[in-house]
Automatic annotation (TrEMBL):
Protein name: Monosaccharide ABC transporter ATP-binding protein, CUT2 family
Gene3D superfamilies membership: P-loop containing nucleotide triphosphate hydrolases (3.40.50.300)
An annotated Gene Ontology molecular function: ATP binding
Domain ABC transporter: 7-249
Annotated keywords: ATP-binding, Nucleotide-binding
Pfam families on file: ABC_tran
Entry-linked InterPro entries: AAA+_ATPase, ABC_carbohydrate_import_ATPase, ABC_transporter-like_ATP-bd, P-loop_NTPase
Organism annotation: Desulforhopalus singaporensis
Length: 258
């Protein structure tokens, strides 16, 4: 594996009013690596992912992408995308009543020489994505189909495929398997596993430790806004993930955090 660091966050702090959501969080993700954030409810996982994806600005700390310092004052979802950081949300990632091709290219349309959207090209690329990323084949597959005709797993797959299409270096997935039928979960996990095969990286957040163990190369444990432990997949069993998470939950219960 290359040691090229895709993203490095250093000493992130973030508070929401009196709630200190993150305290001195530092992490880095290498090229070709899937890193998972594990932690109890309210530990700070989503806050970390939102800072990396440009949704939230930290109160202090710094971010480097591909070795370059990011100006956090001007960092946004749009800027993150331009730097190869894409986020796949649990839901609302695609517009229900829109045809698939529009969803794929929203905000990033391909334009012809006259400045018009190149619909034919976008549809062709969408069809390719449906076939390649989702493995959908046959006469029923169409770039004009509405998002509402796709299953939850297919939607997640398409959203991941979209990130790949735009050559995302880091795909952030916050609870991508929640609310999916069992048979679809396997499909989404397979999509996530294919990310490092293409030399790309992912940040994976899930409460399901079996899923986490299946896809991630490295686990970062978050507790009360701090990264308290990390371990490599090859040296950690699923049982150990459960034990450690239970330990943090028990500690916060003793402290009366919940
Ligand atoms: N917009 C917000 N306004 C106020 N407090 C917030 C906001 N977002 C998060 N918090 C608080 O920050 C802390 C960390 O929340 P965060 O959503 O990052 O946790 P999480 O680990 O993703 O939790 P979960 O697994 O339940 O989604 C929590 O105490 C939460 O209540």
């Amino acid at each position: 594996m290359s040691t090229h660091i895709i993203i490095r966050a250093t000493s992130l702090h973030k508070s929401f009013g009196a709630v200190q959501a993150l305290h001195d969080v530092s992490l880095s993700i290498k090229r070709g690596e899937v890193v998972a954030l594990i932690g109890d409810n309210g530990a700070g996982k989503s806050t970390i992912s939102k800072i990396l994806s440009g949704v939230l600005r930290p109160d202090s700390g710094s971010l480097q992408i591909n070795g370059d310092e990011v100006n956090l004052r001007h960092y946004s979802v749009h800027k993150a995308r331009s730097l190869g950081i894409e986020t796949v949300y649990q839901d609302h990632c695609l517009g229900e009543k829109q045809p698939l091709w529009r969803n794929i290219f929203v905000g990033r349309h391909i334009r012809n020489g006259l400045g018009f959207i190149d619909v034919a090209k976008e549809k062709k690329m969408t069809l390719h994505l449906l076939q390649q990323s989702l493995g959908l084949r046959g006469v029923g597959v169409s770039a004009d189909a509405l998002v509402s005709t796709l299953s939850g797993g297919e939607r997640q797959g398409l959203a991941i495929g979209r990130a790949m299409l735009f050559n995302s270096n880091l795909t952030i997935l916050d609870e991508p398997t929640t609310a999916l039928a069992v048979k679809e979960v396997g499909r989404v996990l397979k999509f996530v596993r294919s990310i490092p095969e293409n030399g790309k990286s992912a940040l994976f957040i899930s409460h399901n430790l079996h899923h986490v163990h299946e896809v991630a190369d490295r686990f970062l444990f978050v507790d009360r806004g701090t990264i308290v432990h990390q371990s490599l997949q090859e040296k950690t069993s699923v049982a150990e993930l459960f034990e450690r998470l239970e330990e943090y939950s028990a500690n916060s219960a003793i402290r009366g955090d919940k």
